[in-house]
Design goal:
HotDog_dom_sf
Length: 164
């Protein structure tokens, strides 16, 4: 007769306000390129992160007067992949103080990035989302999406990030 093992239910991870504010400051203020892009976090959980970019004249492609530049899309999705990894690392180390977890992001960097442009980026604002598919001890894999204000998927991304 086999023995049935019952595991206790997993408690959902809820980030402390000081951790969320610390991540927001790093992402929106200390990473200068994110400030130039105008990336603003709208949601951060261990499972999924979201942000927005509002259209501004400096984000428009040279020959496409009303479309967001592909480089802005790529950079935004790359940043979101990194943000998703930050959230996953933060959730993995909830036994540490928020300040200590924030210091773990110093060595985070992109090692591979793929962007697929599905539709033109036309609109006044855009939503970006990302999630971690796998968080290893050295490398994290992510999936990202770039959406129009109407919710249509405009671009997708996949990235690998060094975490050690």
């Amino acid at each position: 007769m086999s023995k049935v093992i019952v595991h206790p239910p997993v408690q959902p991870v809820v980030f402390e306000p000081e951790f969320i504010e610390g991540v927001r400051q790093i992402f929106e203020e200390k990473i200068v390129f994110n400030t130039v892009l105008g990336l603003k976090i709208t949601n951060i959980t261990p499972e999924r992160v979201a942000a927005r970019i509002d259209m501004r004249p400096e984000l428009v492609g040279h020959f496409a007067y009303n479309r967001i530049h592909g480089g802005v899309i790529s950079a935004g999705l790359d940043a979101m992949g990194g943000l998703a990894v930050m959230a996953a690392i933060g959730a993995r180390h909830m036994d540490e103080a928020p300040e200590q977890r924030l210091h773990r992001f110093a060595k985070l960097g992109t090692i591979d990035l793929r962007i697929d442009y599905l539709r033109p980026g036309i609109g006044e604002g855009f939503e970006l989302q990302a999630e971690v598919l796998r968080l290893g001890s050295r490398v994290a894999s992510t999936r990202m999406g770039f959406y129009g204000a109407d919710g249509k998927l405009l671009s997708t991304g996949a990235g690998a990030y060094i975490v050690s």
